[in-house]
Amino acid sequence: DSGVTQTPKHLITATGQRVTLRCSPRSGDLSVYWYQQSLDQGLQFLIQYYNGEERAKGNILERFSAQQFPDLHSELNLSSLELGDSALYFCASSLGSYNSPLHFGNGTRLTVT
Amino acid sequence: GDSVTQMEGPVTLSEEAFLTINCTYTATGYPSLFWYVQYPGEGLQLLLKATKADDKGSNKGFEATYRKETTSFHLEKGSVQVSDSAVYFCALSEERGGADGLTFGKGTHLIIQP
Questions:
Q1: Nearest Cα to A112, choosing from A88, A76, A94?
Q2: Is the Cβ of B43 closer than 8 Å to some Cβ of chain A?
């Protein structure tokens, strides 16, 4: 058990809709990361937050947004969903230094129909 | 920018065979290097790491040595088991003005047959 909790485990929704994915980091970790995993693109870094502030942005679409709340949990919002957004979305947390390992949740599988 | 290249699978081996999964990287500075493993239906788990040149990371019989001269971090295991079947990801992390997200390779699917 990594200590990182993601909800829900599965989401099925239609194109054009909006969903929110939730992540609770491991106790003591200040950094939260979001990754998208798909068969064709592999594991893509989306965004990182550290203690409530955005720290780094990766390949995150403008239709996607995220935030980290004062209690350090994070939410990833995906809007105007397209078929191509179907993927596994992982949250990870760490202490926040560059050589600290990341601890991953079990992911949210999003299916857009 | 940073990148990680690893052999693509699937790699199929018999139980007790010797395993090597190649990984090379491109980075501007002196990254930390990691191997993560993903079992079916689960998130990624840290397998081992090395933070400077010539460091050897090891865990559960797996080893990898940080080779700066060849920019490589190959994963090895002397005798694989069926339970080692999983997807293995090589990754690097550099400090970039406070940002520290990992850059992953595409993953290598390892299948161990009894």
A1: A88
A2: yes
d(CA B66, CA B78): 18
Q: Do B100 and A45 touch (CB under 8 A)?
A: no
Q: Which residues of A touch B (CB under 8 A)?
A: 2, 4, 31, 33, 42-43, 45, 48, 50, 55-56, 58, 90, 92, 94, 96-107
**Rounded Cα–Cα distance for residues A45 and A33 (Å):** 8
Per residue in A30-63, pLDDT tens?
999 999 998 877 888 899 999 999 988 888 999 9
Q: With contact defined as beta carbons under 8 Å apart, do B35 and B89 qualify?
A: yes
Rounded CA-CA distance B113/B52 in Å is 35
The DSSP-derived string for B7-57 is --S-EEEETT--EEE-EEEE-SS--EEEEEEE-TTS-EEEEEEE-STT-EE
Encoding tokens for residue B90?
Answer: 């090589």
| A32 SS3 class | strand
Nearest chain A Cα distance for residue B75, angstroms: 17
| Per-residue pLDDT reduced to its tens digit, B47-70 | 999 999 999 999 999 999 999 999
Asked if B27 reaches chain A (Cβ–Cβ under 8 Å), the answer is: no
